[in-house]
Amino acid sequence: MAYELIIVETEGRVGRITLNRPKALNALNSDLINEINAALDAFEADRAIGAVVITGSEKSFAAGADIKQMANLQYPDAYLDDFITSWDRIARFRKPIIAAVAGFALGGGCEMAMMCDFIIAADNAQFGQPEIKLGVMPGAGGTQRLTKAIGKAKAMDLCLTGRMMGAEEAERSGLVARIVPLADLLPTAMKAAADIAGFSLPATMMTKEAVNRAFETTLAEGLRFERRIFHSMFATADQKEGMNAFAEKRKAEFSHR
Ligand code: HXC
User: What ipTM score was computed for the predicted complex, to two decimals?
Assistant: First the structure.
C-alpha cells in the first residue's frame, strides 16, 4: 500500500510508523487511521518484526480526531458506520507497540497513545482530553484508559476541565513510562523496541497478553491466566535456548518460535 499520511519504516526487527500530516498537527482523519491500520496489519503478519514504535512530529504526536471532518457528522452516520471502532486496531495489535510522544497528544491523540503498550515522552509532551471544550467527551477510550492509568481524581480533572498535562505530571501520574529530552526521544524508543524485538517473540507477545489481562479480570483469574501461559512457554524453542544459553554463559540466540 502507498502511504500518504504516514511514513512506514523498518530498522532491524523494529517497525516504525510516523504520523505525517504536519499542517494539521497530525489530526487523525479517517484516511490517516486507515493507513495506520494497514501498516499494523502488515507488521503483525510479518514474523521479522518483533516490536513497533508509533510517533509523530516534534511539535505534535497527534492533536486529536480531525475536528473539521467530525463537525457535521450526524448521529445515524456515526452509529451506522460505527465511528471510532476502527481506531481499536492499535489496541488489538498483538506485538509490543511503544508510543514515542513529543508535543501535543490531545483527545484522540492521547487516546491513541494510551492504546499502545507504553508511552515514552519527550520533555515537551503535553497530554489532554480537551473534547469537553468542543461540546463532547472522549470517544476513543479516554474516560476508561485514562482513569485506569492515572486514577479517578486526575482523569476527572483532565476530562472535565480539558486542561493539558505536561510530561512531568504525566510521568508522576503513571501515564508515561519514561521522559527523555526531545532529541533523545526516537533513539530511546527505537532502542527499547529493538531490545524487546531481540527477545523471544512468543514470550513478548504472551507477556503483553498477560499484562493486558490484568485490566479485564479478577486477580485470581488473572493469576490463573498467567500460570497457564507461563506453563505453555515450555513448549517453545526460545525457552530452551534462553535457559540453556544462561547455563552455558553465552548470549541467547532466539528463533522467535
Ligand atoms: C483538525 C486541527 C486539529 C484537529 C489542529 N488542527 N488540531 N485540525 N482537527 N484536532 C489544525 C488547525 O486547525 C490549524 O489548521 C493547524 O492544525 C495548526 O493548528 P493551530 O491551532 O494553528 O496551532 P497552535 O496555535 O499551535 O495550537 C495547537 C493546539 C490547537 C493547541 C493543539 O491546534 C488545538 O487546540 N487543537 C485542537 C485540539 C483538540 O481539541 N483535540 C481534540 C479533538 S476531538 P489551519 O488550517 O488553521 O492552519 C477528539 C475526539 C476524540 O479528539 C474522540 C474519538 C476520536
Answer: 0.98
